[in-house]
Each structure stands twice: as C-alpha cells, then as structure tokens.
C-alpha cells in the first residue's frame, strides 16, 4: 500500500500549512484540496499566502468522480466537519487512508461512522503556532504528528506503515505512539486549558506562560480532564500534564490558539468541543467539574455579544 495522491479538505491554518509543506516536498501533482465551487472561486480570486509566499495549490471540485485519494486529510474545524464529510464523498475508496487533524476526542468516530473505522489512522498534531488572518497563514513552529492505531490488525498495520513511509519520504516530524488514545486525550487536556483560557483573557501564549491567574485557571481546567480521562479508562497522568505544560512554555509567546483567533474574528468558537464535552462526560459519570462549567459560561457570554 503506497500513498501517491493526497487530498486535503479544509483551507484553514493547518490545511494550508501542511498543504504547502507537502506540495513543496512532493509537487502539486501529488497534493490537492477538494472544495465546493464557491470556495474554489474565492481561492482563485483572493489567493492564499503561507509565510509570505504565494501558494499555487491544486483545487478540485467536490463533484469530480473516479479519482479517489490514497490519503484523505480532514483539516477543518469541528463545526465544519459535517459539511466536509459531504465534500469528500467522491474521494473515498476501499483503500483510502484517513487522517483527522481536528481537535477533541470524537472526530475519528464521527468520520468512521460514515466511511468506516478501518480506514482511519488516529493522529494528533501538536506544537505548532500557526495563525491564519484572512488569506495569510504564518507560523514559526511547525510542530509534529503523533500517529498510531488503537487496535491491531494486519490491514491497520499496512495503512499505518503507508503513512510512516510517506512521512519518512517528506521528512515530516512525527512520533509513532504506542497508546494513541492516551495521546488524543492528552492533547484534549491541552486544548481544554490553553485554547479556552487564552480566549477568555484575550491574550496569547505568553498570557499563560507567566505566573498568575490565567495560568492557574488553565492548569485547573486541564486537571479536570485528567480526572475525566481516568473515569473513561484512559491513563492520562500527571506526567502527561507536566509534559504539556512544558510544551506550552516553549511556544512562541506571541502566538495564539485557534479559539483566540475565533474570538478576534467574532466567530463561534470550539467551546462545545472542549468545555462542552467535559461537562457532558462529567454528567455521564456523575461528577462535578466546576472549572470547565465556569469557562463554558464565560465563553458563551462572550460569544453572545458577537
């Protein structure tokens, strides 16, 4: 199993950053974005830049048939996932491998319900400081993929090896995870803390890198996820917590997470994906997680003013 055609859905910060990287490494004939006619028209009119360079991406209409992807990458936000599932309908074959770059702990299952869990290689992307402002994407830290399979099978191993071979070919930074579900939850813990708190304080990574109220709120929100993960039989530990605090402290202090970017643009944020998920699972287990409840209420109040 080899990956020769990569299709990306979503031209946000991550989609553009990885699309630009892969196109540079492999050529535009290897990499394409799939979109509807309106998005294609807007791209052709406005263009897009990545770190100051014009991007010349290959865009294909969602109506195109008989040209499935070897690797299909979901690079949309959670509120765009349902639309993206429709957009990629003609890009999935029995042999297609699917990666989801979405935050949270549920996108793989949602995609798998439509196109089959057998096609999905679980992944987390972390450590990047990418920002999109209108049609301009910038980053100074590229981050890395964490990839793995939660259940062993010959087919899953073949698909995982195909992704590993591709990443080795293009020098993509990655880690092969022995417990990818633990990594998914650990990244969820990070997002629940840093995304939401930086949005509330209307700051940047530097806001939570220094001692103070914002940093302590972030830590408290993250620790609630550890408790919840253990209720879900996922072994997120204090060591994972310390590792992600260190990751936060090494981020570009002038960068900002996606929720803060949503706030600046007066878009609805991913609070339902973060605090909303924490609250729902806490109710399921009959436990009280007051920090994320408070954060949820604050963000909803902020968004009501948009």
Largest sheet data: 5 strands, parallel
Counting helices, strands and paired strands, the structural category is: alpha/beta
Low-confidence stretches: none
Question: Kindly, what is the distance between the CA atoms of the first and last residues, rounded to a whole number of angstroms?
Answer: 48 Å
Q: What is the number of independent domains? A: 2
Helix content: 40-55%
Mean pLDDT: 95
Q: What's the SSE pattern?
A: EHEHEEEEHEHEEEEHEHHHHHHH
What CATH calls the topology of the largest domain is Rossmann fold
**CATH homology superfamily of the largest domain:** NAD(P)-binding Rossmann-like Domain
Number of strands: 12
Proportion of residues in β-strands: 15-25%
SS element count, helices: 12
Radius of gyration: 19 Å
CATH architecture descriptor name of the largest domain: 3-Layer(aba) Sandwich
> What is the global morphology?
globular
Strand order of the largest sheet: 5-2-1-6-7
- CATH class of the largest domain equals Alpha Beta
Q: Can you walk through the features of this model?
A:
- The chain has helices at 13-26, 37-46, 81-87, 107-115, 154-170, 180-200, 205-209, 213-231, 238-249, 258-264, 272-285, 290-303; strands spanning 6-9, 31-35, 49-50, 53-54, 59-61, 71-74, 97-100, 122-128, 131-133, 136-138, 142-148, 174-176.
- It is an alpha/beta fold and 306 residues long.
- α6 (180-200) packs across α9 (238-249), α6 packs parallel to α10 (258-264) and α11 runs antiparallel to α12.
- It contains twelve helices and twelve strands.
- The protein folds into two domains: 6-176, Rossmann fold (3-Layer(aba) Sandwich); 180-303, N-(1-d-carboxylethyl)-l-norvaline Dehydrogenase, domain 2 (Orthogonal Bundle).
- β3 and β4 form a beta hairpin.
- The mean pLDDT is 95.
- The strands form three sheets. Strands 5-2-1-6-7 form a five-stranded parallel β-sheet. A four-stranded mixed β-sheet has the order 4-3-10-9, covered by helices on one side. A three-stranded mixed β-sheet has the order 8-11-12, with helices on both faces.
